[in-house]
Amino acid sequence: MAEFVLVPGAWLGSKAWDEVVPELRAAGHGTHPLTLSGLAYKQGVPAGQQTHVEDIVDEVANRDLHDVVLVGHSYSGIPAGQAAERIGDRLRKVVFVDSNVPVDGESFASVWYEGPAALEASIAENGGFWRPLSAADYEGQGLTVEQIARIVDGSTPHPGRTLTEPAVMGRSVGELPAVYVKCLLDWPEPSETVAKLLTNDGWRLVTMNTGHWPMFSQPRELARILLDATQP
Q: Tens digits of per-residue pLDDT, 4-42?
């Protein structure tokens, strides 16, 4: 039996995994969907990048979890990858779901497609938070109107410091056993950084014909990929 620690991406809390969790539990595995500090019902809790890393590490330690499959979606690939390194032999595998990956000394903002200054300016204009997307921003991502409404209704402003503070890694994330899930409707190819990581023996690429939020658009298919990740 594996223990799945499920970390949602920017703006979202643990409810993002509501349709994935039953599939994993039905297969006999433990499930631990997280809400990171400063988000959802934890709004108001101060948070930087390392706060989110500690949120994940503490979940594993406080519950004394072993055989951990650590799943990070989107932004949360950065804290999840750092936490995966820190939990040591408790880790079975880390799964990056269409996500960023941690690089020592770099932040989420470092690789923002418009440049870090643009993201930092947006955060400053919104009182230190990254403003959630609107319903229109989710078009073309394989989501129904109802699924989009669930995401929008469940979103809260994202603490800006978690996006601008750098990752801290003792070694390359490429040394960890990992699966990278690429959602093709969002962008058909992995980033250059991820493509290089996929050349490592312990990394494997899986593709999904859906958009950037597969836990909403294709939860059963995502669950099957996560269950497969429990295998050597």
A: 999 999 999 999 999 999 999 999 999 999 999 999 999
Residues paired with residue 181 on neighbouring β-strands, in sequence order: 97, 206
Whether residue 167 contacts residue 78, with contact meaning beta carbons closer than 8 Å, is answered with: yes
3-class secondary structure, 181: strand
Tell me the pLDDT tens digit for each residue of 176-219.
Answer: 999 999 999 999 999 999 999 999 999 999 999 999 999 999 99
The CATH number given to whatever domain includes residue 207 is: 3.40.50.1820
Please, what's the b/e burial string for 12-28 (b: 16 or more CB within 10 A of its CB; e: otherwise)?
bbbbbbebbbebbeeee
Token pair 């108001």: residue: 44
pTM over 0.90: yes
Q: Compute the distance between CA of residue 10 and CA of residue 39 in angstroms, rounded to an integer.
A: 9
Q: What are phi and psi of 71, to 5 degrees?
A: -115, 120
Query: How many domains would you assign to the chain?
Result: 1
Q: Where are the beta strands (DSSP E) in the chain?
A: 3-7, 30-33, 68-73, 91-97, 129-130, 158-159, 178-183, 203-208
Backbone φ, ψ for residue 216 (5° rounding): -100, -45
Domain that holds residue 158: 3-228
Cβ(209)–Cβ(188) below 8 Å? no
